[in-house]
Amino acid sequence: MSAFAAASAVSRTAPDSAEFTAELDPQWTVGDKLHGGYLLAVMARAAGEIAHHPHLTAISGSFAVPPRPGPATVAVELLRAGTGVSQLRATLVQEGKPAAEALITQGTLDDADSWWSSVEPIDIPPEENCVPATADAPGAGFRVNLLDVVDQRVDPRHAGFAVGKPAGDGVISSWQRLADGSDWDPLSLLVALDPVPPVSYDLGMPGWAPTVQFTAYLRRLPAPGPVRVRMFATDVGGGRMDETARAWDSKGRPVAQATQLAAVRVPR
Amino acid sequence: MSAFAAASAVSRTAPDSAEFTAELDPQWTVGDKLHGGYLLAVMARAAGEIAHHPHLTAISGSFAVPPRPGPATVAVELLRAGTGVSQLRATLVQEGKPAAEALITQGTLDDADSWWSSVEPIDIPPEENCVPATADAPGAGFRVNLLDVVDQRVDPRHAGFAVGKPAGDGVISSWQRLADGSDWDPLSLLVALDPVPPVSYDLGMPGWAPTVQFTAYLRRLPAPGPVRVRMFATDVGGGRMDETARAWDSKGRPVAQATQLAAVRVPR
């Protein structure tokens, strides 16, 4: 089993139950906070056990209380099983309190090319010419354990934040691989769609940008190999930033996309 | 009271209840289906009665069963009331069955300019040079009652679908006003963010594109006057299309944005 599959595993609490137990893994953290994409993957894995369709297609999550590594439960409710898709709701509960809620659509993905596409894969230098993101970045003030299990190499054009020279474009692009060599799947792509650091770093705002609400669409089954991920913001104001992420597989096809609304502290 | 406020009104079923009644208004329909943005607005209005913060900030909705015009209930659960935001879940129930679920974040919006923005308002001809979208479009096969309460004027560069000559760009831009002259607010903007027709019309796919999952972010309080809305797709394949909508107010500031995953039938 891959490190990701093990970390996001769920077990039914009883044979016909729609409630699952999970063990939230401290490896998938940024500082002391579990990564949002990882938490959604745990919830989506539980929902997938109940769904009448095989693949995660859409997920929207709202994070109320940051859960801690350790035991948690996921309660799933099947809202509807239609012909083409199943719709579900999942609640992640820890210490008796709801920590996160998700709306989930399961469908059937394939690996066919697009019928029509308007977005080309990002133009990013080869992996070996990109800057490895490290778990112990100097001056970060906390350890990004996640970067021990996700190999992320950042386009040097938007890696200037690391030396106090952000480009100011509100863009960060990277290559991403799972560190244990396993391939991406629709669930692990949720981690790739919420890269570290947030694009606010490229705007000169080096601080935590907690996710308020996050939505991802999984578009097709990814080909083996690394994904290219581009994240960009369009508007920062009123203490909020939007971030859009798009991922292309090794064949250059769009495989997933996400948007999130995050809280930011604007410099004075 | 504006037509929109009346159509989306909710009443508590009892003084301290978190359950509300609503009367879904047949005016806010496309064919015989209630508009998704309108349904979310009804749910958000109910959530706003429970929230500790005044303005809708983010909403993600999953549509299971298309509700019919007539009585419905909205059950709201407050997941968390934090310092900056309230997080809630709402369920729209009709005839005893959940028809739609929404995750909602309420916060505090203002009308200040952006601190940083990368997206300019769309370049669209003046309203009087745009093409009015009519409720009784020839050949549509159904009546778009919504277009009697929302004045929508489409950029002629992407109105070719109406005469069988779609531009093929996957873009439709429009001016939008509420027909009764009232101004946009964070709830009514949910209607503006899901314009009719879907961008698939600009790709030569004139058919219903039912929403699978929809997410909107409200960014600031809109200035009085019309909004400019641009909707675009990035990928069509596997029976699915993504649509992104952005709205700018009469001062040219981004006020709201949305993404949706919709089902489409690709031409052979």
UniProtKB/TrEMBL annotation, chains A, B:
<dbReference type="InterPro" id="IPR052389">
    <property type="entry name" value="Sec_Metab_Biosynth-Assoc"/>
</dbReference>
<feature type="domain" description="Acyl-CoA thioesterase-like N-terminal HotDog">
    <location>
        <begin position="25"/>
        <end position="106"/>
    </location>
</feature>
<dbReference type="Pfam" id="PF20789">
    <property type="entry name" value="4HBT_3C"/>
</dbReference>
<dbReference type="InterPro" id="IPR049449">
    <property type="entry name" value="TesB_ACOT8-like_N"/>
</dbReference>
<dbReference type="InterPro" id="IPR049450">
    <property type="entry name" value="ACOT8-like_C"/>
</dbReference>
<dbReference type="Pfam" id="PF13622">
    <property type="entry name" value="4HBT_3"/>
</dbReference>
<dbReference type="InterPro" id="IPR042171">
    <property type="entry name" value="Acyl-CoA_hotdog"/>
</dbReference>
<feature type="domain" description="Acyl-CoA thioesterase-like C-terminal">
    <location>
        <begin position="128"/>
        <end position="264"/>
    </location>
</feature>
<dbReference type="InterPro" id="IPR029069">
    <property type="entry name" value="HotDog_dom_sf"/>
</dbReference>
<protein>
    <submittedName>
        <fullName>Thioesterase family protein</fullName>
    </submittedName>
</protein>
